[in-house]
User: Which sequence fits this backbone?
């Protein structure tokens, strides 16, 4: 079911949608080497395949970890003999220096258009020499609707999909398949294929795939057998609200339901959100420890992941709460979205270019570290927003109490036009 051209790509509209960067490259036939990074099963190889299909260039797939330099040489020879080749290089973060040195001149000449794929952050894991010769695009996790679209295509396609099996997929089975695979289309299609191929036909020559069959084929239990599929989100909502409400036992209960359904990813993502949204400045060390717990859970996987996550949940429940951080940034964003920007004061403008001094940019800026206590009174907000206050501190934890005291002192002595 891999897409044959760019129009068949599921999701990733920020890259392949109308007017977006990769579609523009394909339409203009001005392809450049790129690195696609993001979670597994989100379409990195599919994008590369679709680009090749849309441009009619030869397409080859290699793995940086397992394929040798000899395979790279064969692709290079093909490019020399027959023209440009699009090379999909999986796990590009594991590219060795000899392979990299061999590839660099080929990228420079345009003989090979490299499309690297990785689940790692390329700004950290990929050699700067490769990064400087590629554009880097983040591939996002597919939504449930994206997964459902791909499943329906597979069920209807007689040639490449499962159309000839006359599959009847129950609504709750579809919801669970799209949701429990957490945006990984490969896992969803693999689970669907196993379900169809291992289920006998009924009297009407149809393959009837139920929720129970999907649960078995993807090895993840549904939270409940509700047709609308709301129960999953209800449990996640109850999980956050229980922590926000400081009910430790309820929070542990709802997390247990999510973990039993195999939804480790939702638990980890929601815990990180809760830590900074609901606890925040009332107890910053708890936020840091939550990050550490999530990292440990990622390394451990289930069932051991339940241990650091339980510790984090208990601490967040018992911790003092504050949402002053999210309220502050949302208030600032609200101003920006309403057009309340204002001109940056001249003394704060960039002064690192020729002619800036003549424009008065940065000339009257006072460097705080040159003054007692590393602070000096001067204007920072635009004139039109001088009296704006976004951060309103709370007093639910010792840390934010101390912040409030310092913040109030600074506010009382800050610049007034």
Assistant:
């Amino acid at each position: 079911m891999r897409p044959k051209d760019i129009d068949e790509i599921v999701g990733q509209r920020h890259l392949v949608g109308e007017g977006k960067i990769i579609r523009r490259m394909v339409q203009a036939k001005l392809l450049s080497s790129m690195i696609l990074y993001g979670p597994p099963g989100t379409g990195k190889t599919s994008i590369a395949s679709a680009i090749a299909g849309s441009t009619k260039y030869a397409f080859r797939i290699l793995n940086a970890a397992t394929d040798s330099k000899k395979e790279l040489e064969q692709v290079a020879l093909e490019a020399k003999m027959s023209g440009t080749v699009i090379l999909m290089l999986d796990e590009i973060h594991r590219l060795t220096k000899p392979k990299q040195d061999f590839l660099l001149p080929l990228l420079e000449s345009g003989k090979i258009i490299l499309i690297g794929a990785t689940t790692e952050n390329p700004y950290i894991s990929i050699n700067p020499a490769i990064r400087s010769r590629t554009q880097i695009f983040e591939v996002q996790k597919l939504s449930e609707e994206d997964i459902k679209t791909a499943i329906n295509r597979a069920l209807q396609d007689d040639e490449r999909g499962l159309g000839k099996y006359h599959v009847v997929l129950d609504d709750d089975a579809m919801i669970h398949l799209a949701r429990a695979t957490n945006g990984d289309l490969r896992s969803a299609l693999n689970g669907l294929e196993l379900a169809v191929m291992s289920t006998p036909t009924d009297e009407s020559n149809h393959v009837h795939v139920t929720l129970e069959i999907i649960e078995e084929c993807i090895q993840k239990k549904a939270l409940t057998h509700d047709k609308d599929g709301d129960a999953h989100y209800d449990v996640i909502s109850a999980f956050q609200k229980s922590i926000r409400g400081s009910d430790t036992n309820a929070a542990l209960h709802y997390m247990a339901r999510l973990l039993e359904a195999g939804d480790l990813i939702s638990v980890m993502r929601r815990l990180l959100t809760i830590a900074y949204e609901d606890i925040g400045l009332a107890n910053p060390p708890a936020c840091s420890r939550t990050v550490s717990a999530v990292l440990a859970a990622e390394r451990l996987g289930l069932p051991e992941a339940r241990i650091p996550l339980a510790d984090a949940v208990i601490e967040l429940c018992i911790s003092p709460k504050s949402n002053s951080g999210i309220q502050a940034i949302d208030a600032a964003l609200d101003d920006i979205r309403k057009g309340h920007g204002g001109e940056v004061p001249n003394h704060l403008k960039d002064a690192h270019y020729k002619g800036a001094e003549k424009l008065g940019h940065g000339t009257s800026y006072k460097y705080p570290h040159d003054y007692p206590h590393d602070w000096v009174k001067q204007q920072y907000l635009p004139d039109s927003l001088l009296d704006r206050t976004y951060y309103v501190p709370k007093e639910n934890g010792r840390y934010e109490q101390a912040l409030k005291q310092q913040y109030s002192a600074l506010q009382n002595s800050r610049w007034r036009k």
